[in-house]
Amino acid sequence: MLELIKELCSLPGISGREDSVRDFIIEKIKDHAEYSVDALGNLIVFKKGKKPAKNKVMLDAHMDEVGMIITGITSEGFLRFEKVGGINSKVIVGRSVKVGENAINGVVGIKPVHLVDKDKEDVIPSADELYIDIGAENREEAEKAVSLGDSVCFDSDFIEFGNGFVKAKALDDRVGCAILIEMIRSELEYDAWFSFSVQEEIGTRGAQTAAFGIAPDYAVVVETTTAADISGVSDEKRVCLCGNGGAVSFMDRSTVYDKTLFDRAFEIAKEKNIACQPKTLVAGGNDAGAIHKSRGGVRVLTVSVPCRYLHSPVCVIKYSDAEESLKLVTALAEEFATC
Predict the structure, then answer these.
(1) Residues 25-47: tens digit of each pLDDT
(2) Among 7, 34, 101, 200, the one annotated catalytic
(3) What is 2-65+169-338's CATH topology?
(4) Are strands 299-307 and 246-249 parallel, antiparallel or unpaired?
């Protein structure tokens, strides 16, 4: 699965521009399941198991990543942009990026320190003060390479380092996509539905449509979440820890999770010797927020791979957490299919 995560993270796919990610996933699963693409761009997959399921179970991961979109070109040939998804401007400044379908190289420019007033040296510019430099001489030259509405992704290599750690862009949520692909390519005990959703980062829009179409009884959202096990963060705010397995949520800003399902996840993990942990801070949100309100309601759970430096070019996970999350999600899918 590690190579699969690497390949997925290398693909561009900001919210609303997930085509290359969807095409890649289809290529990986087309011989293992039935699939369709809905009007919004969600990839909906049905995988036949060894036995029919009593309950319809939906497994969801989102394909999109945070990034930027081109909104203007200056007379000097620099590109103006708007952020797509929740990105802190601090992680944009000075970064290498790829622009548009042709992956034009660029850098996010900033006024050099020598030209900054002393009282503003520590001030992080807002996004509307920044620009992307693609090396164009003027607007006419830039317009030959880039158009308004082109997507911008971080340019960040996939690197393995330390004791089992991985760094890449877009681990949120390509690691979730990799987990679902692995499930689809394996032999499942029961029938299952999968949604590779679009536009999660700008309001869980794809999952809302996917859940309405699938009409599941149960859903498991496979995500990443903030691992704040870093310097300067107190123990009670560390959310979850890299290396302790997948994080199971009891509440976030968009969902209060079913307590029975939450407790059962930990019982199953103990029975099967799977590493997992609670997400200990009520923060953030994910596709569960849209799925659990669909139609007449859906019983939902989220399992997240802990990820440091979320929504940045240098997301970091411990690979063993992805492996443990795969085991837990597979076990939960079997449980919910028959309970």
Answers:
(1) 999 999 999 999 999 999 999 99
(2) 200
(3) Aminopeptidase (3.40.630)
(4) antiparallel
